[in-house]
Amino acid sequence: MTSTFSMPMFRPFVPSKLRPWVYVFFAFTFQLSGGMYLGALNQMVGGMALMREDLLMCLYANLAGMAIYFPLLFRMKFRFTNKTLLAASALGVAACNLLAPHISFLPLLWLVCFVEGICKIQGTFECMSNIQLWMTPQRDFTVFFPLLHIVILGSMQLSDLLMTYLLHHYHWTYMHLFIAALMLADLLVIATCTRHFRAMKKFPLFGIDWLGAVLWAALLLQVAYLFDYGDWLDWWDSPSVRRLTLSIAATLAICLWRMSTIRHPYLEPRMWTYRHLLPVLLLITLVEAILASERVLEETFYEEVMHYAETVSVQLDWSVLAGILAGCMFAYWWMHVRRFNYLRLLIVGIAALAAYLVLFYFTLSADLHLSQLFLPVACRGFAYAVLSATFMTCLEEIMTFQHFFQALSVFNMLHMVVGGVAGSALYTRGLACLVPDNMARYGQGIDSVAFSRAPFDLGEFLETAFVPSVMEVSIKQLYGWAAYACILLLLLFLLYDAPVRRELKRIPQWKDVARQVKNSFWRTRHHPAEANDGRPSPPQG
């Protein structure tokens, strides 16, 4: 049965056909935002007198805020009106963008980025959840997730492009001012074109484990800090890293103890028992770790070997954007139009990821032209879009609605933070080991014959020829090892070719969800013995 689509939160003078497009525009503006925009990383390092790791931690704090907030999204939707949530989100994003460039105290800067991530995901969710029936009247997530990832992944590339072009003509802080101006435009439209509306009766914020949310957020940020600063602190040779590792273990133990002892934990124990959940979480972590080559190996190659300016290397974002659009449309065709096996779509995505790594391995050279990289980075965008949309669809299919957003929170902790930061640390450590080793190996070629021509400028030779050549060889070696790992993963998928699920289950209406939540708390308050002694039904997977 299909549901009728309408948007009664708009005032009558707004045309019906224009209303969903206004929310699409809102979603893009929210996704363009961020705490600190790393397209101008080198300029921010000098302008703010911060290290590269400090600014990367801003990114991970922003992503952590988004990931940890997922279990609260529907509770906020049941509590506040649509207009209140959108206005608060836009105001929060604008305030954080205006404050962030002027904060030099790192813990406060990270907190601002964390809050910005919460506002960003709340605004995006409020927009996309209200136009879901417009996108797919049957609430078919094989339609919704590919289209959602066009907004999410496409905005990532557009944000990088916008940041680079603003930096070229103005100052890096203009990106923050531009996003704040977009949020003010959103607020103007919200104030004039929408009214307070709620789809169901107001439900109080009862039974939320706020302390549990803080503990899981602290754990996530500690893990990100460990991998981000680990190489700079010399890993476990540093007393501070050893203390941080003990702190992570203690925080994890407290989170697990609290999850198993209180009545309504932030992440429920039953959520972990669904079949196929752990393999999905492991696979997305591995894929994100491999894709961290974009942030470490590619950027090092562009800066240290090719010496590209930001306006040159950013041209590759157009190819990535084309790959993302192709990947989302391919996932839509595969899952919705043809209804093919999900696992085989994952195989296609991993094959595209392997193609990216292999193409980069054989293409990477100081003599290449920028156009030779268009195909490899397009394969990366295609792989990322296919895998992201498919993993999220598989996750929705194996979970009941009661635990889906909790699982989505864990999924995004690994997807957006842990996998990427761990992969970046691994690649960075690889470069730290391979570059000195290759310098020692290839440095043997610099002998009296090499010095025979006169005059011989040793400094110029090392800067323009020797060091870039060593970096090129080291980066190529790491791409080779990453390609081996990805091909091994692809072979394992080919050996285990079985579907997660072919048939789609029906998605409950929001009123049914609200009724289930209300009934669960009613039983908890009025029948405590039943709540404590009852045996929950096994999860469906």
What does this structure look like?
This protein is mainly alpha-helical and 541 residues long. Helices cover 72% and strands 0% of the residues. Helix 1 packs antiparallel against helix 6, helix 3 runs antiparallel to helix 10 and helix 13 packs antiparallel against helix 19. The radius of gyration is 25 Å and the shape is globular. The two termini are 23 Å apart. The C terminus is likely disordered.
Mean pLDDT: 85
The biggest sheet, with number of strands, parallel, antiparallel or mixed sense and barrel status, is:
none
N-to-C order of helices and strands? HHHHHHHHHHHHHHHHHHHHH
Question: Helix amount, in percent?
Answer: over 70%
**Low-confidence regions:** 498-504, 528-541
End-to-end span in angstroms? Answer: 23 Å
Could you outline the blueprint of secondary structure elements for this entry?
Layout: H1 19-32, H2 41-48, H3 52-68, H4 73-79, H5 82-99, H6 106-130, H7 132-135, H8 141-169, H9 174-193, H10 210-229, H11 239-261, H12 277-291, H13 293-305, H14 310-313, H15 316-337, H16 342-363, H17 374-398, H18 401-442, H19 458-495, H20 510-526, H21 528-533
Helix pairs in contact: 1-6, 1-8, 1-9, 3-6, 3-10, 3-18, 5-6, 5-9, 8-15, 8-17, 10-11, 10-18, 12-17, 12-18, 13-18, 13-19, 15-17, 16-17, 16-19, 18-19
